[in-house]
Amino acid sequence: MKRFLKRLIIVAIVGGLAFAACRPLVSKFQAGSKPNWRTAKVSRGRVLFDVRATGTIEPVLKVRIGSFVSGPITDVLTDFNAQVKKGDLLARVDPRLFKAAVARDSASLETRKADVERVSALYQQSVRNERRAIALREENEDFISPREMDTFHFNRLSLEAQLKVAKASIKQAEAALETSRANLNYTEIRSPVEGMVIDRKIDQGQTLAAQFQTPELFVLAPDMKKKMLVFASVDEADVGRIIQAQKTGLPVEFKVSAYPEDTFYGKIEQIRKNATTTENVVTYPVVVAAPNPDLKLLPGMTASLSFQVDQRKDVLRVPNAALRFYPNNRLLVREEDRDLFDGEEEEDDDADIEETHLTEEQKEKRKHKRAKRHVWMKEGDFLKAVQIEIGLVGWKHSEMVEGELEKDDELVIGEHIGEQ
Fold first, then answer.
1. Nearest to residue 194, comparing CAs of 358, 78, 50?
2. 222 and 292 in contact (C-beta within 8 Å)?
3. 3-class secondary structure, 20
4. Average pLDDT, the chain
5. 201 phi/psi in degrees, rounded to 5
6. Under CATH, which number does the domain 67-94+187-219 receive?
7. DSSP 232-269
8. What is the pLDDT of residue 250?
9. What is the CATH number of domain 33-45+315-415?
10. Core-most of 15, 93, 180, 182, by most CB within 10 Å?
């Protein structure tokens, strides 16, 4: 009997020691099995609803400079990114043929002037001969016959006509000379505006052929520091909001890949009506104007735009991540909220009904119903559901118009995976 009691005492002592050793492990296991929730706070601030789009940056105006005359390029006096003024010489076409044409037409003009002087002298002589004949005939009709009088008369008329032709030929020669001088001037390619050279399409020694199509030599962009345009394509579903944003004067924010840390601002300048359809998707071009004092915005850059179409200032806002969160296990929810947990799926099933079959009143009721949402907070070891009504929905936060939440309340937005 004593031996049995001794063994029983030994077993009890070993069991107690084993229980004491395993208890921390059990507690740690139980603690580790509880979800480690990620949370975000309710805050107060601005809720912004915007429409996202992409676009291409272009200058306000592109001046394409060509050549009116043909010939080899002897000089190229500007390069890419050069800032030029109006009238600056950009390039020169070989002028030798055009100088020769000017000399030829100058000589032709002098010839025409000399011919006028010659014909004018003959005309004056014919006038005097006719006057002498008239005077002799008046003195005695037998001195000059009527036939001879006709010769004097029509000779004068012929020379008078030749003089008119000679004077007209001077005008032709002057016009030809003016054309040759203009063509000679066209051999100097000058800038018609002040701006920056954003493209140069010729090199020295290249030959131009302008007979059939004007060759493009340079592309200038004036006033790039004052304003650049962003051409965006906006989906037809968002055009109404963009029109409203233009009326209210809300700004447009955009970023470019070259300066990821910088945010640029502009305003809607134009909403064009020429729709484009691509794979049954209808978009409208929207033009956004933005200042460019530092010349950071360059032609051809791709911009990611955010059109601000509505906003609420100084309102309670909940993170959208909290609106999207939904517990994946009903046992994690406190018992009084488990009926709500089961009813959420029915609400999602009702969302499949086509809205086109509803009346306006039904649509409004559905909209109001959808605004009623639930967010989840920690309450001890379980999750507690809090019903709220949301208003304006932004990209990161949504406006809370009704609900028992206050600033800095923590809402569950997810679970830390693999963390203790």
1. 78
2. no
3. helix
4. 85
5. -115, 15
6. 2.40.50.100
7. EEEEHHHHHHHHHHHHHT--EEEEETT-TT--EEEEEE
8. 86
9. 2.40.420.20
10. 93
Identify whether the C-beta of residue 280 lies closer than 8 Å to the C-beta of residue 235: no
Residue 99 has pLDDT above 60, yes or no: yes
Transcribe 213-234 into DSSP letters: SPPEEEEEETTTTT-EEEEEEE
Q: Which residue has the tokens 């809607």?
A: 268
Q: Give the end-to-end CA distance of the chain in Å, rounded to a whole number.
A: 51
In angstroms, the Cα distances linking 294 to 221, 253, 375 are 15, 17, 46
pLDDT at 175: 96
Do the beta carbons of residue 420 and residue 66 sit within 8 Å? no
Tens digit of pLDDT for each residue in 292-317? 999 999 999 999 999 988 888 899 99
* Residue listed under structure tokens 């949504």: 398
Which of 125-129, 141-145, 174-178, 344-348 is the most confident on average? 174-178
pLDDT higher at 26 or 274? 274
Residue 420 has pLDDT above 70, yes or no: no
Token duo for residue 109: 């003009």
Cross-sheet strand order for the sheet of 195-200? 63-66, 216-221, 195-200, 83-84
Q: Which H or E run includes 414?
A: strand 410-415
**Contacts of 105-112 spanning 24+ positions with Cβ under 8 A:** 105/173, 105/176, 105/177, 105/179, 105/180, 106/177, 108/173, 108/176, 108/177, 109/170, 109/173, 109/174, 109/176, 109/177, 111/173, 112/166, 112/169, 112/170, 112/172, 112/173
Q: Which CATH number is 51-60+222-313 given?
A: 2.40.30.170
Rounded to whole angstroms, the Cα distance separating 374 from 395 reads 18
Q: Where are the domains of the chain?
A: 33-45+315-415, 51-60+222-313, 67-94+187-219, 95-185
Residues 6+ apart with CB under 8 A from 288: 55, 229, 230, 232, 252, 254, 266, 267, 268, 269, 305
Q: What is the pTM of this model?
A: 0.65
CA distance 80 to 17: 86
Q: What single-letter DSSP state applies at residue 356?
A: G
